[in-house]
C-alpha cells in the first residue's frame, strides 16, 4: 500500500516542490510586489476612482439675459449636481471653442427672449449641447434634464410642484449630442483602442529590449564593444516605431471599414501626434528595460503600468467621473493625453491649437523618459 | 610601454572585496596566464581592465589609456572574449560578424567579414545560426569576432572551458601566432597545461595576487619538496601519510603518489618508515605547477559565498 502510493504520489516530494516554489517566489521581489500590489491597486482604483455616472461636469453658459427665470434655470441645473458652470461664454462661437478643446462637457444656451416667453406663456426653449464623444459620461446629465428644468420653471412661476406633471411640456429642452448625434459608444471606444493597443504592445516590446540582452548574456559583449548609450537606446527603440506605424495603419483602416468611425480632423495632425505618443511609449518601455532584471519582470512592470492606464485615462470610464486624486494620477499617464488628442482630432475635427497643450505634455513625457532611460542605463556592469 | 599596468585595484560588491589590491603588469607582446580558483576575482579583474567595471580604488593604464577616464578608447583597441558565449544565437554566423564589424566601423564591412569567415573556415556555414554551433566552433567564432578589429590587447576569460583537447591545442596555436604579430594576451584558465604555454603566469586567490612570474619562477619560489612514492596498495600508504607533520599534500598520480611539503626535513622524517619498506620506492620528484596551486588554495582563506 505504502509502496504503491509512494510511487505515484508522495507528500514528502510534494512538500519539497512546494518549498522550492515558495523560496523562488520570495526571492523574486518584483513578482512578489506584483502579487500584493495588483489586487490592491485594482481594488482601490475600481472601488474609489471609477464612477460611471459622473457628476459636477464642467459646463459653459451662454445667457444674454439676466432675468429671474434665467437665474432660476441656471441654479436648478447646478442643483442637479451634474452641471458646474465654470465658464460664462459671451457668444456661441466662444462656447463652441470651449467644447472643441474639451474644456467643457456641456454648453447650456438660454435664449435672450427666455424670460419674456415664460412670462407670456409662450413655450420657452433652452438648448443643451452635450459632448457626446463619450456618450456614457453625459447620459446621466442629459436624462435628468427634462424633469428638472420643468420643475424649476414652475417653481419660479410660483406653481406647486404637484401640478408639475400637468404643466410638463411647457418648456422645451432641446438636446444636441455633439460629434456623435446617435450616441454610438464605438465612436468613443475605437479611437481610444488605438491608444490602448499602442500602449500595450509598444511598452511591452521595448521593455524586453535590454533585459533580453542581459538574460542571454549578450549585454556583456555589447558593452565591451564601442557603442554609446544613446546609440544603444535609439537602436533598440526605433525599430518599434516602425511596428507602431503598422499598428496605427491597421487600426485606422479598420475603424473606418469595420466600425465606420467618422474622421473629421486632419490625418497628418493625428499622425504627428501619434508619433510623439509612440515615442513616449517606447522610451517608457526602454526605461522599464533598464530597471527590470529579467524579461518576466519587464512584463510585470509593463502590466503594472498598463492597468492604471486603462482605468484612469478615461478609456473605460469617464475621466471626469473620477475623484481629484484619481484625475491627478490620470494626468501623469501618456494615454490620458493621447485619448484627448485622438478623440478631439477624429471626432471633433480639432485643429492644432486646440490640442497643442496635450501634445506638449506628450513631448514632455518623451523628454523625461529619454533622460531617465539614459540616466538609468549603465555603460558598465557595476 | 606596457600593455597593462594596474596598481592596487580594489573592487567590492557589497561588503565583499572581490579584488583586493591587485597590481599587475603585462608587457607588450606577452602572453600572460591568469590563474586562480573559482570566485577568486579573475573575471572581475578582467572586466575592470576592459572598462566593464569601475574599480573602487587603485588606478592604472591599459594600452596607455587611463582606466578610469578613457573607457571608450580602451574598448576600441581591446578584444574581450567573455566566459559565456555572448554573441547572438538567433543571428547567423555572417550576421554576427557583420554586426561586430559595423560597430567597430571596419570598412569595407563585407571584406572584413569574408576574410574572417575564410580564416575560420566557416565560409560555407555563413548562413547557419550561431546558436546551432558546437561549443568548440562557438569559441572559434567568438575569438574571430574579438580579433576582427585588430585589437592590441586580447582579454580572454576562460576561453577553453568545455572545449575538446584538439580544439584547445588549435586555439593556443592561434594565440601564439597572434602574439608573434605583436598582440598582447591576458588569458584566464584553470588548466595547468595552458598555464605552461604562457610566457608568464599570475596567480590570484580570493582577490589577492599571490604569485607572478614564469612557471619555473612560481614553482621555485613556492619552495616545495615533492617525493614520488610507488608500490602496491598506495591507498593505504596515502591514508597513513595523511596528517603526518610535514606532509601537506598527498595526491595520487596514476600509479604513483605525490607527497608534497614545504619543509624538506620534516617531510623526509615523515616518509622514513615507508622508505624502509622493500616493496615501496620513494624518489625525489619534480614539484608541478598544480602542486603549487593546491598549496596556495589550501593556504588562503575561503571566500566563497
What does this structure look like?
The complex is a heterodimer of chains A (382) and B (305). Chain A has 2 domains: 57-178, abc type-2 transporter like domain (abc type-2 transporter like fold, 3-Layer(aba) Sandwich), CATH 3.40.1710; 185-376, no CATH class. Chain A contains 17 helices and 5 strands. Chain A has helices at 2-8, 11-27, 29-49, 68-79, 92-100, 114-119, 135-143, 145-156, 164-167, 185-216, 218-224, 229-257, 267-291, 295-312, 324-331, 334-348, 352-376; strands at residues 57-63, 83-88, 106-110, 125-131, 172-178. Chain A has a 5-stranded mixed beta sheet with strand order 2-1-3-4-5, sandwiched between helices. The relative contact order of chain A is 0.12. Helices cover 36% and strands 28% of the residues of chain B. Chain B has 305 residues and is of the alpha/beta class. Chain B folds into 2 domains: 2-219, P-loop containing nucleotide triphosphate hydrolases (Rossmann fold); 225-286, Alpha-Beta Plaits (2-Layer Sandwich). Chains A and B meet through α11 of A and α2 of B. Chain A: It is a multi-pass membrane protein.
In brief, what are we looking at here?
By secondary structure, chain A is an alpha/beta fold.
Strand and helix map with partners:
The complex is a heterodimer of chains A (382) and B (305).
Chain A: H1 2-8, H2 11-27, H3 29-49, E1 57-63, H4 68-79, E2 83-88, H5 92-100, E3 106-110, H6 114-119, E4 125-131, H7 135-143, H8 145-156, H9 164-167, E5 172-178, H10 185-216, H11 218-224, H12 229-257, H13 267-291, H14 295-312, H15 324-331, H16 334-348, H17 352-376
Parallel strand pairs in A: 1-2, 1-3, 4-5
Antiparallel strand pairs in A: 3-4
Chain B: E1 2-13, E2 16-27, E3 31-35, H1 42-49, E4 57-62, E5 65-66, H2 71-77, E6 78-81, H3 93-103, H4 109-120, H5 135-147, E7 153-157, H6 165-180, E8 184-188, H7 192-195, E9 200-205, E10 208-213, H8 215-222, E11 225-230, H9 234-241, E12 249-253, E13 256-261, H10 264-275, E14 281-285, H11 289-299
Parallel strand pairs in B: 3-8, 3-9, 6-7, 7-8
Antiparallel strand pairs in B: 1-2, 1-4, 4-5, 9-10, 11-13, 11-14, 12-13
Family (chain B): Belongs to the ABC transporter superfamily.
Keywords (chain B): ATP-binding, Nucleotide-binding
GO molecular function, one term (chain B): ATP binding
Amino acid at each position: 500500500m505504502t509502496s504503491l502510493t509512494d510511487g505515484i504520489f508522495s507528500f514528502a516530494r510534494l512538500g519539497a516542490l512546494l518549498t522550492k516554489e515558495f523560496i523562488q517566489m520570495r526571492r523574486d521581489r518584483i513578482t512578489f510586489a506584483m502579487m500584493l500590489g495588483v489586487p490592491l491597486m485594482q481594488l482601490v482604483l475600481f472601488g474609489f476612482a471609477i464612477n460611471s455616472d459622473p457628476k459636477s461636469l464642467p459646463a459653459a453658459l451662454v445667457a444674454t439675459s439676466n432675468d429671474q427665470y434665467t437665474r432660476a434655470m441656471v441654479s436648478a441645473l447646478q442643483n442637479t449636481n451634474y452641471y458646474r458652470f465654470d465658464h460664462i461664454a459671451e457668444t456661441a462661437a466662444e462656447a463652441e471653442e470651449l467644447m472643441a478643446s474639451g474644456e467643457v462637457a456641456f454648453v447650456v444656451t438660454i435664449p435672450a427672449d427666455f424670460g419674456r416667453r415664460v412670462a407670456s406663456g409662450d413655450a420657452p426653449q433652452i438648448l443643451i449641447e452635450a459632448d457626446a464623444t463619450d456618450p456614457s459620461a453625459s447620459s446621466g446629465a442629459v436624462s435628468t434634464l427634462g424633469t428638472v428644468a420643468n420643475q424649476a420653471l414652475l417653481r419660479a412661476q410660483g406653481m406647486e410642484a404637484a401640478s408639475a406633471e400637468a404643466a410638463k411640456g411647457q418648456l422645451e429642452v432641446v438636446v444636441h449630442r455633439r460629434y456623435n448625434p446617435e450616441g454610438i459608444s464605438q465612436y468613443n471606444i475605437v479611437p481610444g483602442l488605438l491608444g490602448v493597443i499602442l500602449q500595450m504592445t509598444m511598452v511591452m516590446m521595448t521593455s524586453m529590449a535590454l533585459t533580453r540582452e542581459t538574460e542571454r548574456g549578450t549585454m556583456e559583449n555589447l558593452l565591451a564593444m564601442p557603442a554609446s548609450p544613446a546609440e544603444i537606446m535609439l537602436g533598440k527603440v526605433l525599430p518599434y516605431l516602425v511596428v507602431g506605424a503598422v499598428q496605427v495603419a491597421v487600426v485606422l483602416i479598420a475603424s473606418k471599414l469595420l466600425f465606420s468611425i467618422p474622421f473629421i480632423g486632419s490625418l497628418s495632425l493625428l499622425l504627428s501626434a501619434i508619433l510623439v505618443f509612440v515615442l513616449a511609449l517606447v522610451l517608457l518601455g526602454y526605461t522599464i528595460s533598464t530597471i527590470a532584471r529579467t524579461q518576466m519582470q519587464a512584463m510585470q512592470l509593463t502590466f503594472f503600468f498598463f492597468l492604471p492606464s486603462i482605468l484612469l485615462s478615461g478609456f473605460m470610464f469617464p475621466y471626469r467621473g473620477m475623484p481629484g486624486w484619481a484625475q491627478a494620477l490620470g494626468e501623469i499617464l501618456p494615454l490620458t493625453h493621447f485619448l484627448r488628442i485622438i478623440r478631439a482630432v477624429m471626432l471633433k475635427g480639432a485643429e492644432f491649437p486646440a490640442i497643442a497643450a496635450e501634445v506638449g505634455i506628450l513631448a514632455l513625457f518623451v523628454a523625461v523618459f529619454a533622460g531617465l532611460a539614459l540616466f538609468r542605463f549603465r555603460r558598465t556592469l557595476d | 610601454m606596457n600593455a597593462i599596468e594596474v596598481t592596487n585595484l580594489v573592487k567590492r560588491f557589497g561588503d565583499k572585496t572581490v579584488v583586493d589590491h591587485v597590481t599587475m603588469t603585462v608587457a607588450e607582446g606577452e602572453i600572460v596566464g591568469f590563474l586562480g580558483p573559482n570566485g577568486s576575482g579573475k573575471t572581475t579583474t578582467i572586466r575592470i581592465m576592459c572598462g566593464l567595471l569601475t574599480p573602487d580604488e587603485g588606478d592604472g593604464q591599459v594600452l596607455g589609456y587611463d582606466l578610469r577616464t578613457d573607457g571608450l578608447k580602451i574598448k576600441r583597441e581591446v578584444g574581450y572574449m567573455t566566459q559565456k558565449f555572448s554573441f547572438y544565437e538567433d543571428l547567423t554566423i555572417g550576421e554576427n560578424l557583420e554586426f561586430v564589424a559595423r560597430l567597430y566601423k571596419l570598412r569595407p564591412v563585407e571584406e572584413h567579414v569574408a576574410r574572417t569567415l575564410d580564416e575560420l573556415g566557416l565560409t560555407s556555414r555563413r548562413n547557419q545560426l550561431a546558436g546551432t554551433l558546437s561549443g568548440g566552433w562557438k569559441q572559434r567564432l567568438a575569438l574571430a569576432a574579438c580579433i576582427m578589429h585588430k585589437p592590441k590587447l586580447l582579454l580572454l576569460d576562460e576561453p577553453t572551458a568545455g572545449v575538446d583537447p584538439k580544439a584547445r591545442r588549435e586555439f593556443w596555436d592561434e594565440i601564439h601566432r597572434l602574439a608573434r604579430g605583436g598582440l598582447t594576451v591576458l588569458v584566464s584558465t584553470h588548466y595547468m597545461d595552458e598555464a605552461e604555454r604562457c610566457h608568464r603566469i599570475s596567480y590570484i586567490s580570493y582577490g589577492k595576487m599571490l604569485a607572478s612570474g614564469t612557471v619555473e619562477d612560481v614553482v621555485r619560489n613556492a619552495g616545495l619538496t615533492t617525493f614520488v612514492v610507488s608500490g602496491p596498495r598506495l591507498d593505504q600508504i596515502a591514508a597513513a601519510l595523511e596528517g603526518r607533520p610535514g606532509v601537506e599534500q598527498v595526491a595520487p598520480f596514476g600509479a604513483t603518489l605525490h607527497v608534497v611539503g614545504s619543509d624538506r626535513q620534516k617531510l623526509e622524517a615523515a616518509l622514513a618508515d615507508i622508505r624502509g619498506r622493500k616493496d615501496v620506492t620513494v624518489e625525489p620528484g619534480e614539484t608541478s605547477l598544480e602542486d603549487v596551486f593546491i598549496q596556495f588554495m589550501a593556504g588562503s582563506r575561503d571566500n566563497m559565498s
